[in-house]
TrEMBL record, chain B:
Keywords: Cell membrane, Membrane, Transmembrane, Transmembrane helix. Heterooctamer of two A chains, two B chains, two C chains and two D chains. GO terms for molecular function: cytochrome-c oxidase activity. InterPro entries: Cyt_c/ubiquinol_Oxase_su3, Cyt_c_oxidase-like_su3, Cyt_c_oxidase_su3-like_sf, Cyt_c_oxidase_su3_a-hlx. Belongs to the cytochrome c oxidase subunit 3 family. Residues 1-207 form the Heme-copper oxidase subunit III family profile domain. PANTHER family: CYTOCHROME BO(3) UBIQUINOL OXIDASE SUBUNIT 3, CYTOCHROME C OXIDASE SUBUNIT III. Cytochrome bo(3) ubiquinol terminal oxidase is the component of the aerobic respiratory chain of E.coli that predominates when cells are grown at high aeration. Has proton pump activity across the membrane in addition to electron transfer, pumping 2 protons/electron. This is Cytochrome bo(3) ubiquinol oxidase subunit 3. GO terms for biological process: aerobic electron transport chain. The keyword Membrane applies. GO terms for cellular component: plasma membrane.
Length: 694, 210
């Protein structure tokens, strides 16, 4: 470590604009355009908030709220903003590789930065917050609770995730991000080979967002274990809740290895330790093991909730009880356990004995069994169902077909002998995009379309939804299926330039596909805009627009802050569907009680801002600031524990008034059958026209 | 009279005498157990790293040159005793003994915790004098990644004791404060558990295999 000034190692040259002024070229222009978009975006948001005088409402209703529904929505908004950046980076990378043999407009360093941020953002700041945004919104509603177990900790988790994501945005404008990929393998990311700020941005973003995610995992595990409504036994939980339990367990056990690995890398870089260095006994294999000990459970903690979403979607839009509930539960837990036994398949070629590779290869292939069970269960749910091809269902069908291809290419890769041939090629890139897009992203988008009316009280535009399904599906196939072929032909991943002319046609197809994906992203935004514009025609205040089966549909849309006026007594799996069949779906409670809910608090926002400054100070070696902010964070947390007045009471009379107003709405609404669920007369009261098929 | 249910969470709980606090603690104590499990994985991994790096001494000083077992023995006794005293504080709370008993046992625990830290830091300084600094080798990096991590936990526990002591004074024995005492006691026992791992694996293991 060298002597540093008041602002650490931060100087004028740290800003990309300095590079552009010295030497204007395409590479610098792309970097500055990205920084410019980022700055213009921030100014636009600040300007709009000021113009419409929204700072007050934003602070009171959102930033300080401890309501799990609002926190969930904020997670999703954050994820979609980050998704836009991740997709754009993907398009730039495809453009670079499509330019032709030896061509291209980016420098190698810049390309490496792009694939590093793309991977880091898509996993940690799109998939994770989107998955846990939906979970945040849904879990208490599904299990019949008023909030998560620790509402304020939930807010702090959000704060940590967002501030870490902001670091990636800051790295566009100040300094540059890591070039070491999303895995950041040392010794390349160590101080000897990479003395700049890039890996430090990665490390602190990962450590901070990782601790946020750990807190989220603890929160959801405890919520589902302890806060279920009376009668909601484990085997009556919706499958989605089961997948969130599994994900939470995976988080609790799998996030620590990531934290350990990143902090050890930080010790190497900042304090000259020798965990992973080439000299003095360092051993980078420890890093590879730790990283993938986290990394493999991570992909299941992302995809299991997507499975859960599809399970709910298939059951609802087939108008059937989910087929094979028990086998789905067992398969989910099997996948969760097996996911801890396969991490080594990420580095078959890094020098283990053949026996060890074989063991991990077989363990990997075993995961295909519970996953296959799930696929058959979903198909059996569709079989003889009364299927409606709504937007979530279309995502589900695209998922079923494409995900199986991705899964099978995974089984191929699980064979170490095959892996030796295709590792580090685009075949691998094709494989994991093939499971992450049709699996995780389609699942999340299906969930977004399915539960949107529950969150906001109006349905999303159906036509634009369908366009968006087609664009995502076609875009995915055009972009990533060609990569299987070039991968088999030997094209290495992460190469900013290539020479073999036979790759070129595939690269051009993939480039076109990238534009289709970009338009798919635009179609999602247009869908949202059109839906908000036409919201008067799609109101569903009664709350059950899809004739759905689980508890969250039995309450108003949007739900009141306390979720349930009276905590329901559960007597059946798919309790709400059973109640509708009996004609007892909207009971009028005899008495109401005072409800106490967590009060608004600014601690989450404070931690968000402070942890952001803390990370920035560490990245730029501004030690006095890092120390100051550490003390401030500790102090603000300790002072917060002295606050006793953390709950506010909603009087029973108020609850009664609101609930009875809604019950009047239920009684006056016209039931709508499934053929007309996308029509304006669907006010959210379903008329079950078929007996549930069991 | 119907007895209120007890043992709604694992570990020594507040029991029937504090029914409302006991109930209020159920969810949060369970959550704290889950947190400790996650923290345990941190330590478990650091132990694993240490074991893989025992031989990575790169010609630098090894366990036989650096470890002062007399001091380790003293630290062990101090930490185990502090676990006993925090347990006594917990019992005083559970059986409604006068509040000064809780404060007294808390203070003893705090003093023992600080003594432990002082001895530990003295050990590190001795090691540094003999060239045992983390920058010297992979083995020493692993040592300094693990043992001070436990030390930081003890320091956090001490800070917690101080803050909770103040809250006992300001708020008295409210449900919230009692529930926090339960968790602090759990945390302190957890520190002890990790220390048992450290003497067995880091010190005895290091001396045997290093």
């Amino acid at each position: 470590m060298t002597e540093t000034g008041f602002f650490g190692r931060l100087t004028w040259d740290s800003f990309p604009i300095a590079g552009l002024m010295k030497d204007p070229n395409a590479n610098e222009i792309v970097a500055n355009a990205a920084a410019g978009v980022m700055i213009v975006g921030v100014i636009a948001v600040v300007g709009l908030l000021t113009w419409f005088r929204l700072w007050g409402p934003l602070w009171r209703n959102w930033l300080t709220s401890a309501d799990h529904k609002k926190i969930g929505i904020m997670y999703i908004v954050f994820a979609i903003v980050m998704l836009a950046r991740g997709v754009l980076e993907g398009v730039v990378m495809r453009a670079q590789q499509a330019a032709g043999p030896g061509e291209g407009f980016l420098e190698a360093e810049h390309f490496a930065e792009l694939f590093s941020t793309h991977g880091t953002i898509m996993i940690f700041f799109v998939a994770v917050p989107f998955v846990f945004g939906i979970a945040n919104f849904l879990i208490p509603l599904m299990i019949g609770a008023r909030d998560v177990a620790f509402p304020v900790m939930n807010q702090i988790s959000l704060g940590l995730t967002v501030s870490a994501g902001m670091m990636l945005m800051v790295s566009l404008v100040v300094g540059q991000f890591s070039t070491g990929g999303w895995t950041a393998y040392p010794p390349y990311t160590g101080a000897v080979f990479n003395p700049g700020v890039g890996p430090d941005y990665w490390i602190w973003a990962i450590v901070v967002s990782g601790s946020g995610t750990t807190l989220t995992g603890i929160n959801f595990a405890v919520t589902i274990y302890k806060l279920r409504a009376p009668g909601m036994t484990f085997m009556r939980l919706p499958i989605y809740c089961w997948t969130i339990i599994s994900s939470s367990i995976l988080i609790v056990f799998a996030m620590p290895p990531l934290g350990v690995a990143a902090l050890m890398l930080a010790a190497d870089r900042y304090l000259d330790f020798h965990f992973f260095t080439n000299d003095l006994g360092g051993n980078m294999m420890n890093y590879a093991n730790l990283f993938w000990l986290f990394g493999h459970p991570e992909v299941y903690l992302l995809v299991l909730p997507a499975y859960g979403i599809f399970s709910e979607v298939f059951a609802t839009f087939s108008a059937k009880r989910l087929y094979g509930y028990n086998s789905l539960v067992i398969a989910t837990m099997c996948i969760a356990v097996l996911s801890f036994t396969v991490w080594l398949h990420h580095f078959f070629t890094m020098g283990q004995s053949a026996l060890i590779n074989a063991v991990f290869g077989i363990a990997t292939m075993l995961i295909a069994i519970p996953t296959g069970v799930k696929v058959y269960d979903w198909m059996a749910t569709l079989y003889r169902g009364r299927i409606r091809f709504s937007v979530p269902m279309l995502y589900g069908l695209a998922f079923l077909m494409l995900f199986v291809i991705g899964g099978l290419s995974g089984v191929i890769l699980a064979n170490p002998t095959v892996d030796y041939q295709v590792h580090n090629t685009l075949f691998l890139v094709a494989h994991f995009h093939n499971v992450l897009l049709p699996g995780v992203l389609f699942g999340l988008l299906a969930g977004y379309n399915y539960w949107f009316p529950k969150a906001f009280g109006f349905r999303l535009n159906e036509a634009w939804g369908r366009i968006s399904v087609v664009l995502w599906t076609v875009g995915f196939m055009l972009t990533f299926l060609p990569l299987y072929f070039v991968g088999l032909m030997g094209m290495p991943r992460r190469s900013y330039s290539w020479e073999d002319p036979s790759f070129h046609p595939f690269m051009i197809v993939a480039f076109i596909g990238a534009f289709v994906i970009l338009s798919a992203l635009f179609s999602v935004i247009i869908q949202l805009w059109v839906s908000i514009r036409d919201r008067e025609k799609t109101q569903v205040p009664v709350g059950d627009p899809w004739d759905a089966r689980t508890l969250e549909w039995s309450i108003p849309a949007p739900p009141p802050p306390y979720n349930f006026a009276v905590i329901p007594q559960i007597t059946d799996r798919d309790d709400f569907a059973a109640a509708k069949e009996r004609g007892e779906a909207y009971p009028s409670p005899d008495q109401y009680e005072d409800i106490s809910m967590p009060r608004n608090t600014g601690i989450g926002f404070a931690i968000c801002v402070l942890s952001g400054i803390w990370m920035f100070a560490l990245v730029w070696w501004i030690w006095w600031l890092a120390a100051l902010v550490t003390v401030l964070m500790l102090l603000s947390f300790i002072l917060w524990t002295f606050r006793l007045d953390t709950e506010e009471v909603i009087p029973a009379e108020e609850v009664r008034k609101q609930h009875e107003a809604w019950l009047d709405l239920v009684n006056s609404a016209k039931p709508v059958d499934r053929d007309h669920e996308t029509a304006p007369e669907n006010r959210g009261l379903a008329r079950p026209d078929l007996k549930a098929v069991t | 009279m119907k007895r209120a249910p007890t043992h709604s969470y694992p570990g020594l709980n507040l029991g029937r005498r504090h029914a409302s606090a006991d109930k209020a603690s159920e969810v949060v104590t369970f959550g704290f157990w889950v947190f400790l499990m996650s923290d345990l994985v941190y330590f478990g991994l650091m132990f694993a790293i240490y074991i893989t790096m025992i031989d990575a001494q790169a010609g630098g000083p090894g366990p036989h040159d650096l470890f002062n077992m007399t001091s380790i023995f003293a630290q062990t006794l101090i930490l185990l005793t502090s676990s006993l005293t925090v347990g006594l504080a917990m019992l005083a709370l559970k059986y409604n003994l006068p509040r000064w008993r809780i404060v007294f046992w808390f203070s003893v625990t705090l003093v023992l915790g600080i003594c432990f830290l002082v001895l530990e830091i003295r050990d590190f300084m001795d090691m540094a004098e003999k060239g045992g600094i983390p920058q010297r080798s992979g083995f020493l990096s692993a040592f300094y990644g693990l043992v001070p991590l436990h030390g930081v936990h003890v320091a956090a526990g001490c800070l917690w004791l101080v803050v909770l002591g103040i809250q006992l004074r300001v708020f008295g024995l409210t449900d919230l404060v009692m529930s926090r005492v339960v968790r602090l006691a759990l945390f302190w026992h957890f520190l002890d558990l990790i220390w048992i791992g450290i003497i067995t694996i880091v010190y005895f293991g290091g001396l045997t295999y290093g």
